[in-house]
Every structure is written in C-alpha cells, then in structure tokens.
Design a protein that fits this description.
The protein has 13 helices and three strands. With 296 residues, it is mainly alpha-helical. The longest helix is centred in the first third of the chain and has 22 residues. The radius of gyration is 23 Å and the shape is globular.
Length: 296
Amino acid sequence: MALTAFLSYLSLEKNYSPHTVLAYRRDVETFAAYCKEEHQLVEIDTIAYTMIRSWIVTLVESGIDNRSINRKIASLKAYYKFLLRLGDIKINPLSKHKALKTAKKVEVPFSEIEMERVLQQVEYGDGFEGIRNKLLIELLYTTGIRRAELIHLKVSDVDFHTHTMKVLGKRNKERLVPLLQSTLVLFKEYYVVRNALAVMVDEPFVFLTKSGKKFYETLVYRIINGYFSKVSSKVKKSPHILRHTFATHLLNKGADLNSVKELLGHSSLASTQVYTHNSIAELKKVHSASHPRSKE
C-alpha cells in the first residue's frame, strides 16, 4: 500500500505527469521484483543499502547504461524519502548514494537552414492538422517553451494586442514571452480552423486534436519528429531540441545570456549555460575568420 500512497503523492502533490508517475512505479516495482526473485524478500520498505548496491551491479552487468541506472535509483531514492517523511522508516538507505558517472550529453540543435526548410519548404496543407502543426513548430522555435507548457497553453494566454503570451512553467511560475508577427499570423489562421471543428467543445486549451480533445505529449513528439525527418538527418528530433535550437540561435546572434534565461523560464543561469556550447563554437569561427592574427 506504501507504493500506492507514493504514486498518489507524486500525482496529486508533486503534480507529475501520468507518464512520469508510471516511470517511478516501474522503477520501484522492478527493484521489488529483483529482491523477490534473487533474495526472496517481499517487503522492500526496510532494506539495507547493500541490497540496493547488488541490484545496481546486476543492472550494470546487464548492459544498461549509467544514465538509465541513475534514473532508476533516483526513483527508488524518492520512494524511500517519502517513507521517511511518513515516519515508516528512520533512515533512507540511499541518503549517501552517489550517482554513477555518465558521459556528458551533447545535444545538437537544428541549423538555421534546417529551420528555414521545415517552415518554408515542407508542405503542411490547408486543413486543420496542417495549420495546427505548422503553428506548433513555429511556436516552439520562436519562443523556446517546453512541451508541457505548449500542451497547457490556453487561448486566453495569447494576447494579440501586446504581442505576448503568458506561459505557466515549472513550479507554477508564470512568465510573459514575446510573440513574433509571423507567429501571430499563424495563430490567427489556426483559430479559424480550430473554431470550425465539427466536434468543437468548450475547450480552453490552444492545441487540440482533430477530435477536439486536449493535446498529449507523445503527439507533440510525433509531429516534431515527422516533419523534421523530411529536412534533417539528425538522430534526435524532439521538442526539447527545438528549445535548444531557440536558445542557441539567439545566443549565436548576440543575445544576452540573462535575457535568454528569462525567455526560457530558468531559475538560474547554470541551467541556461548548457546551451552556450554551440554558441561558443560559433564564436570560435567568427574569431578565427576575423582576428588579424588568425591569418598568420
């Protein structure tokens, strides 16, 4: 029953998405299954770190990468932290655990040429889904909002008069994001076909399925992956890569890091600095091509 209470806590108090809650559940249940099969232990609530360490060794030997193992352990750590909070245990067995080392993850943003191609050369069509999908890609690229922020965006959040959009970010923190004229034009085109949906219901959210229902995470991913597969050979094509692209292109054009931080809705500069890798590469090119000493 402790696991059920934990999952309810994640969903109701932490406001985690169903997808995230499911991932936590699978991680905890996987460890429980290991304990039962390998050590005949049914109850995992009170357990020594040595047992968890043996599970980690098993995961490493099975070929699972360190990043995935760290995620599983993070789920388990959160579970024990919850039990500690309830008073069911006195010590979190993972309190002193150190995450496994992982290789630095470098995400490659789309180039300006790829963005131009996907927005100007790809055929979207004049129907509801085509106009909606083009707006979705344009909005993610020109504002840098997260996938969850896009899904929860409401019609009332878009202000055509001030050319701004209200975004509800992490920890329910609101921010205003400016909208380009090209994006506003697409919004107006989309609203025409959105309001003409035969199955239209009183739905407050901007992005809807063709059946008039609220958007969901996997659909956003499928749309991004589908259209960018036509113009890019990059392995990873996701909503987050568009957010990465937004930040990188702004920084490449000389945008201030603090301004990009505010646009992205980051709480600290440290989070924004991960996007400077490609900007520095661009600066190196400029430096090499422009400095008088570079020709010697």
